[in-house]
Queue: 2 jobs
Job 1
Amino acid sequence: MHDIHVPSDIQARYLPRRKAVSLIIGGFTLVGFLAFFALLASDPDRAWQAYVSNWLFFASVAQGAIMLGVATTITRAKWNWSVRRVSLSFGAFLPIAFLLLLPMLGLREDFFPWIEKMEYDEIVQKKEAYLNIPFLIARNIVLPLLLFGLSLMFIVLAIRPDLGPERARDEDGDPARARWRERIAGGWLGQEAEVERSWSRMSRLAPALALVYAFVMSVIAIDWAMSLEPHWFSMLFPAWFFMGAFWGGIALTVVAVVVLKKLAPDFDEAMGPQQLHDLGKLVFAFSIFWMYLVFSQYIVIWYAKLPWEQEWVIHRSDAEWGPLSIAMLVLCFAIPFVALLGRKPKLIPGWLGAIAFIALIGLWLERFILIAPSLHVSGTPTLTAWEPLIGLGFLGLFIGSARWFLQTFPVIQMWQPPKEPEMVERELPQDAELAPRV
Amino acid sequence: MATVTEKERSELTHPDVRSYGEVNTDILQMLSRPGKAWWFLLGLSIAGIGLLAFSWGNQIINGIGLAGLNTPVGWGAYITTFVFWVGIAHSGTLISAILYLFRARWRQSIYRAAEAMTVFAVMTAGLFPLIHLGRVWHAYWLFPYPNQRMLWPNFKSPLVWDVFAVSTYFTVSSLFFLLGLIPDIAAARDQAKKGTLRQKFYSLTAFGWRGTDRQWHHFGKAYLYLAALATPLVLSVHSVVSWDFAMGIVPGWHATIFAPYFVAGAIFSGVAMVITILVPIRKVFGLESYLTTRHFDAMAKLCLVTGLIVFYAYLTEFFMAWYSAEDPERRVFWNRVFGHYWWATWIMLICNGLIPIMLWFKRVRHSIAALFVISIFINIGMWFERFVIIVTSLSHEFIPFAWNVYRPSVTEMGIVIGTFGWFFFWFLLFIRLFPPVAIAEIKEVLPPPMRPKKKEVGR
C-alpha cells in the first residue's frame, strides 16, 4: 500500500488543435449520416435498427465514462487524479445524445413489435399499462433529461474550480472557448471557496447520480432492447445493460488516455504507469464481471428450457446470429481476459489501448445484438457494412464533442479534493502531545 | 516524518495509536485471562450447542418427520438458515480480498475478525445440508468418489455444484485466514511465557516466522495471489447457492438476476454481521483506538451500497413479475406481499429496504449504538429474505390444489437457534486464541518510528 503522488502544480493544458483532425471528424459525421439517409430511402427498418443500436452504444459508453468519474468520487479515489477529467469529457456528447434520441421517439410499428401485437396477443395486452406510446415517449424524454442533466451538473461542478480568472487569458487562440470558460465560472468565489463548494456538492450529487443511473438505464434497456421481443423478460437484463455501459466507460477512458499520452509529453508523464495499471485492472475485472452477468443470465435460461425465455437466446445463437454472438464473447471476454493477465501487459500503453478498443468493438456488437436479432427477418443479411458506416456518424459527433471539451477545459484536473473533511473534523484527545511517543 | 503533528495525526487511520509497541500490547492483552463476560457468553454458546445436539440427535433417531417439512414445502427453515450462514460468510473474504485489491485501507482493523467469521460461518452453514439429509450417515454420497458400480452424483444438479462451491470456498478462505495470521501468531509466541502450552501452540502455528525480509517477501506474494483467487470465489459461491433456486422453474425462484442479487445480499448481511460482532468486542476489550468511527462509517457505507443493490433487485423482481404477464409469476409476488406470509415479506422489506435508509445520514453512521441496532435488523431481514424466497414460492406453486402452509417445527427452531451457539462458540474461542485484530497490518498504516529531531528531544 503506497501513497499516490499528486503533483501540487499542475499547469492548465489543453488538447492541441489540428485542422486535419477536425476534417476527419467532420468527414466521419458526414459519411455516417449520408449513409443513414441513403439506407433510410432503401431499407428504413434496417436504418433505424442501426441508428438505435448505435445510439445505445455511444450514449451508454459516454454515460458509463461519467459514472467512472462519479464512482471514483464516491470512493474518494486518488489514483485517477490525472485521468478524471478525461472520463468526464465524454459528457459533452450527452446533449447531442439527447437530440439524437428525439427522432427515435417517432418510431412506431416498424420498430416496436408490441404495437401490432397489442391488438390480438393476450400476453402483450396484459402489459399495456407499461407498453404504450404516450408513456414510452414521456418516460424517454423525462428520464434521459434527468440523467443527462444531473451528469452535466456534476461535470460543471468538477471543472469549475479550474476556471478561475486567469483561465480567460490562456493562449489557446480561440475567444469562443475562453467565453465558455468564463460563462461556466460566472460568479467566481475565489479558488478555495470554489474547491470546497464543488467538492461538497459533488460528494452529495455522486450517490444520487449513481441511483438515477441504475434506474434510467434500466428503463432504457427495457424500452429499447427487451421489449422488442414482447413476450421475453429477464430480470438481470437491465443490470447487465448498465454494468456493460459502465465497463465500456472504463475502456473508453483507457483508449482516450492512450491517445492523449501520444499527443503531449505533459499528458504522457501525468498519465503514468499508476493510472495505466489501475485502469487496466478495472478493464480486466469488469470484463470478467460482464461475462459473469452474461453467464448468470444464460445458464438460468438454458437450464429451465422455458419456451418464452429460450426464444430470445435461440434468436441469438442460431445459424445466422450464432457466429456474431460468439464473436461478441471473444471480443468482450476472451481477448481482454487473456491479453490483460498479469501486470506487464497493463503497463504497455499501446497494448492496453488496443485491448480496450477491442473490448469497445465487442460492446458495440453487444448493443447491436441486443436489438437486431429480435427484429430480424430470416434470410436477410445480419450485420452488413451499413451498421458500422452509420456508426461513423455517431463516432464523429462523439469524438468531436469530447475533443471540444478537452480543448476548452484543462485536460488534467488542476484542483484536488480537500483531504477528507471527516478526518480533519475529528476531535483530538484532550491531552494531545505534540510529538509522538517513540 | 519523524514528528507527526496533531493535524497530520488526525488524518491517519488510527489517530490514537501512537507507537508500534502499543499495538502489540493492546491486541495481545485480549489473549490473556478472560473476564466474566467471556465465560458467560461461552456458557451460553455451549448451551446452544447442547440444544443443537439434542434437537439434531432427536431428529436422527426419530426421523426427518420431526421437521415441519412436507409437500409442497420441502425446503424450510434448514435451507433458509443454510443460505443465511453462507451469506454471512461472504463479507470476510470480500473485506480481505476485494477491498485489499481496491486498496481500501480501512479494512486493516476489521479484516481478521471478518475472516474468522467467514470460516466459522461456512462451518455452520455446512451443517445444514447434513441436517437436511435426514439420514446423515449417507452424506458421503454427495461427493464423487470412484466406485465399482459406477455410481456418480448428478453433476447437472445445482446441489452438487453447491458441494463443490462451498467446500472450495471453505478451503480457500481458511487458507487465507491462516496465512494472514502467521506474523501475528509469531508476535503472540514471542510474548507468551516460555514452556507453556500456549507458547508451544503458537510456535507450531507460526511456522517458524522470524519476520525476515525473505519471509515478508513470500508472505506478500502469497497474500496477493490468494486475494486474487478468492475474489472470483466470493462471487461464484453465492451465485451457485442462488442457482439452487433459480434453476428450478418455481415461480419466484426462476429469475436471472438471482446470482448477482444473492451475492449483494450476502455481502449486505455479512457486513451487518461484522458490525454486530465488532461492536461488543470493541467495547469489552477497549479497542476504541483501533476500531474507530471511520471504520464503522466505511462498513455502514458498504452496507448501504449492497443494501441498495438488494433493493434494486426487489424492485426489478416485482416489476418483472408484473411485466412477465405470467399468471403464476404475478400471483406469487402478489401473494408474497398480501398472502399468508405477508408478515415475513414485510419484515424483509422493512429491515432490508427501509431501515438501511438511515445509513444515508452521517450522524447515524457515526453512532456506534445506532449501527449496532441497524445491523441486527439487517440480520433479521436477511434471514427472512431467504425464508420468503423459499417458503412463499414453494407453498404457492402452479396448481391451487397443491398449495399448503408450512410452519417450522420445534425441532427446526431448536436447530436453527442452536447453530448460533455453534457459531459463537468458535468465534469466542478464536478471540482468545489468535489476535483478532491484525497487528502487522495496522503497523503498516502507522507512522514509522523514527528518532525525533534533535531540538525536539527535550520535550
Job 2
Amino acid sequence: MTLLHFQLLSAAIFCIGLYGVLARRSAVLVLMSIELMLNAVNLQLVAFGAFSGFGTSTGQVIAVFVITIAAAEVGLALAIVMRLFRSRGGVNMDEIDVMRG
Amino acid sequence: MGLALFYAAAFLTLLASFGVVATRNIVHAALFLLAALAGVAGLFVLLYAEFLALVQLLIYGGAIIIVILFALMLTRSGEYEGETETRRRPFAAVAAALLFGLMTAVFVADAEQFNTNTRQAIPFRTLAEDLFAAWAVPFEIASLVLLVALIGAVVIGRAGREEDETLPEDDEPDDAEGPVRRGSRRRAERRRRGV
Amino acid sequence: MEQAWLIPVFGFGAFAFLALFRKYLPGQGKHLAVLAIIAAFVAVWPVLFDMLDKGVGEHHFPRDWFSAGPLEVGWGIIVDPLTVAMLALITFVSVIVQVYSLGYMRHNGTDDSRIGWYFAVHSLFSASMLMLVLADNLLLLYVAWELVGLCSYLLIGFWFERRSAAEAAKKAFVTTRIGDVGLLIGVVLLIVEFGTVDIIEIMGSLGDPGVNQAVVTASAFLVFFGAMGKSAQFPLHVWLPDAMEGPTPVSALIHAATMVTAGVFLVARLFPLFDATDSAQMAIASIGLVTALMGAAMALVMTDLKRILAYSTMSHLGFMMLALGAGGYTAAIFHLLMHGIAKAMLFLSAGSIMHAAHEETDIRKMGGLRKRMPITSAAFTIGALALAGIPPLNAFWSKDEILLAVADGLNPVFVVLFLIAIVLSALYMGRAVLVVFFGKLKPENLDIHESPRIMAWPLALLAGLAVVTGFIALPIGYEGIGTFLVAPGDKPHAFEVVPIWLVASVVLALGGLALAYLLYGKEDTSRVDALRERFARAHDIVANRFYMDHAYQWTIDRVVLKVSGLLARFDRKVVNDVGVNGPGLGAVEAGRRLRYHVTGLFADYGLGIVVGVAVLGALLWFGV
C-alpha cells in the first residue's frame, strides 16, 4: 500500500465527479458530483499527510477546512436550487442560461 | 491485510461513485453518494486519520446527505422523468478520461520519490494542538464562513418565498384552488372584526 | 544687460492680458498695448548704453527649459550690436505703428469691432520679434520665428470676413512654412552635429576638426531656405504682395520693417555659418540679386499703391541678402534699419491716403494729393527719395555701403545688375510719387483731407528720422557703424566713402528719378503707353508677376492635390479601413460568430475549463 494507490484512486473519484458535473442535468446531481470531487481532494490531502514522512498534521487540518467549506457550499447551493425551483419550476441545468450571449 | 482492506474500500468507493453519476433515480444517487462517502471514511481510517473518518461520517453522512434529501423532496426532483444527461455527455466523458490519463501519468512518474515512505499515524493530541493553535485563525475564519453561509442560505430561501407571493396566480398551477393571499386574508379578517 | 529679457515680457504680458480681459476694458484695452510697447521701447535704451559700455553680453538663466538626453536647452539671451540695433528698430517702429493704429483703426469715429484683438496680436508680434532677436539658442529662436509667422497670419487675415484677406493669410502662412521646414531641418542638423543649441557655441566651433563640413553646408542652405520664406526671397516671395490685404499699419510693421527682415537677421545671426561656405554665400547673393531685380521690375508696373510698396520691400530685402552674400554684414544690417524706417513711413503714408480715400489703393485714380495732404505727401516723398538713394536721406548711406560690399566681394556682373536695380528703384519710387501726389486732382478725390493728428504725427516723426538716421554711419560720438555693427570674427572697419561708387550711385539714382519725371511727370501718358506697346510681352510677363503665381497654382492643382488625393485614398482605404477599422470589424465579426457558442450554460463553460486545464497541465508536464 503506497501513496500511489491513494493517488490513483483519488484521481479516479475526481474524474468521475467531474464527469457528473459536466454531464448531469439536475442541479442536485451536479451538487452531489461536486461533493465527490471534494472528497477525492480530501483523500489526496490526507494521503499526502500520512505518507509525507514528516508526521505532519497539515493534510488532515486542511481536509477539515475543506469539509467545512463543503458544508457551507452545500447549504448555500441548495438554497439557490430551492429558489430556482420556485421561480422557474425546475432545476434543469440546461434551462439555466441567463448568461447566454 | 492492509492492502486487501484498501482494495475493498477502494472498490466500494469507486462503485458507489459510478452509481452517483450513472443512476437515473436521484434518490438512489443520493444513497450511492452516502456509500461513496462511507468508503472514503474507511480509506481515512486506513490512513490512520480516525478523526477525519468520524467527521466525514458525521458531517457528510449525517448532515449533507440529509440536506440533499430534503432538497430533493422539496424540489420534487425525484419525480423528474426523462433525460438525466445532457447532450454533451460524450465530451464530458472524454474530458474526464483525458484528465484521468494526465493525472495518472503525473502520479506514476512522481511515485518514485514517495514509494519508500510508509503510513504514519498522527496522535490526536498533535492534531488538536495544530488545529487550535497553529491554525487557529483559519479555523475561526472557517467558522465565520459557515455562519455567513448559513445566513446567506436563509436569506436566499426567504427572499424566494416572498417573491413567490408576488407572482401572479397563473404561475402556480399546482395550487388548483388558488392560494388565498395573505393580504386579502388580513383584510377579510379585519372586515370580520368590523374594524 | 541681464535685464534685457524683460523687453519682450511687456508684449507677452499685454497679449495675455488683452486676450483674456479685453472685453472688460475701455476701448478693449488698446491703450494698454500701446503703453506696453512704449515701456519696451524705453527699456531698450539702458540695454543699448550698457552694451556700448561693456561690449557683447550673454545671459543664461540658471533654470533649463528642458533637457533631452545629453542635450540641454536653456533660456538665455544674447546682447550684441545686432540684437540691440534690431531691438531699437522693432520697438521704435512698433510704438509708431501702434500709435498710428489708434487713428487708423477708427472708421467714421468708431473703433474696429475687434480692436482689442488687433492690439493683442500686435503686442504678441512685437514680443515674439524681440524674443527672436534676443534668443541665444536655436530652439528659442525657432519658437519665436514661428510665433512671428503666426502673428503675421492673424494680422493679414484680420479682416477675415473678406475672402481675399483670408486667402492671403493662408497663402502667407503656407508659403513661409515651406521655408520654415527647411529652417527646422537645418536647425536640427546643427543641433545633432554640434550637440548643443547655443548659437555662439555652434558658431565658435564651426571649423573644429571632426565637424562634418557637408552637414554644415547643408544646414547653411536649409537655414537660408527658411530665411527665404520669411524674407520673401525668390521663389518664395509670392505671399508678400498678397499680404497687403491686412490693415496697412500691419504692412508697415510686419511686412516692411520687422518680420520680413527676420530672414536677413537670421542670416546675420548665423553669419559665420554662411561665411564658412562659399557656395551658400554665392547662393544668397544670387537669390538676393534676382529678388531685387524682380521686385523692382514688378514694382514698376503695379498700379496698386500697397503692392508697389510690397514689391519695393521685396526688392530691398534682396539688396540686404545680396549684401550678406557679398560678406557685407554691416551694410546689410545698416540697410535693414534704414529701410525699416523709410518703408514703415511709406506704408503709413499709404495708409493715410487709403484712410482718406475710402480704402482706394489704385494709383491711377489718385493724383494731385500733394495739396490736400501735405504731411502725408511730404513723408511719402521723403521715404521714396530715401529708398531711391538720394543723399543725405538715410537709405542712401546704407545703399552705398551695400554697393561697396558688392563691388568688394563679388564679380562685376553682380555690380552691374545691382546698379540697374538702383536705377529701377529710383524709377518706381519716382513714378509712385509723381502719379499719386503730383498732377491734377481727380474729381472723385475732391473730399480728401489730411488724416487726423494721431496718424500725422508718427509720419512727421518718421520723416525727421529718415533724414537724420543715415548719419549714424559716420563716427559721430562713437566709432561709427563699421565698428559698431561688425560680423562676429570680422575686423571692424571705418565707414568709408569711395568717390567713384558714391558718384555713380547718386548719378544713377538721379537718373532714375529724371526718367520717372520724363515718363510720368506730365499729364499725358503717351510715352508710357508707347513704351508699354513696344515691350508688350515683357510688360505682360512682369505685370503677371512672372507667372509664378500661376505656376504655383498649377502645381498645387495638378500635382499637390493629385498626390494628396492619392495619399488620402491610401489613408482611407488602407490605413483606416484595414489598419484601424479592420481589427475592430474583425472583433465584431468574431463576436457575431462566437456568440452562438456562449450558451450561458454552466456545463459548457465547465467543459471548456476542464479541457483548458488538461491541455495546460499536459503542456507543463511534458515540458513543452
